[in-house]
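This is your field. Have a critical look at both lines of this record:
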Amino acid sequence: MGVTACYCRVSTDDQNLDRQIERTAEYATDRLGADLADIRRYQDKSTGTDVDRSGYQEMMADAEASELRAVVVLSVSRICRSIADLQRTAERLEGAGVELHIISEGLTLRPEEDDPYQTALFQLLGVFAELEANMAQQRTKEGLAARMDQAEYHHGPAPLGFEKDDGRLVEADDYHNVVATIEMVQKGELSKRKAAQRLGSSRATINRAVDRTDLYGL
C-alpha cells in the first residue's frame, strides 16, 4: 500500500501539535485505509513561514524518492503560507506521483487522475499564484511611492527590509524574510520580541514596520 505521510506544523514554540497529529492520523487510517505502521509523521515547530523547513523538506525528498503514496495535512495554512507555495507543493507531489489530502478544506489532489475538477483546480492555482504575486508587487510599489514623498525617507534611515540607492528606496537582500516575519506578527503567530530577535532588530523597529504594511504588500 505504501507509506502515508502526515505533516504537522505550528508557527511558534508555544503552540501544540497534538491536535494536528491526531486528526491527520485519524484521516489516514479511516479515509485512506492506512495501517498505523505505514504512517510516517513529519513535523515542524519553528518560526519559519515559508516551505523551507526541515520536516517539510525531508517529506518532499522522501516523496520524490518514491517512498510515499500520500501526504495528509490538517489545513492549507499548515503546509504553505500562500497560493504560490501551495501550487509549488502540489506540483512537486503530482510529479512524484503522490496524493495530497488537505482535511479542513476537503481538498484532494490525485496525480494522473482524469478529473476535470482537479485539472481546473491546478489551473486556478497557477492563475491565483500569479495574481497574488502581482497584487503584492503593486501594493509594495504604491507604498514606496507614497512614502518617498515624506521627508523622513529622504533624510532618515531606510525602513526595515529596504536600503537606499541614490535617494530611492529599494528592496534589501533580507526583504522577503522581513515580509514573512511582519506577516507572522500581524497574524499573532510571532511576538514582536521574537520578531526583533529573528531580524536582529529592535521592538521599536518592528512596531514601525507593522504600521507600514503597505511597504511590504501586506
Notes: The CA atoms of residues 63 and 96 lie 6 Å apart. The mean pLDDT is 79.
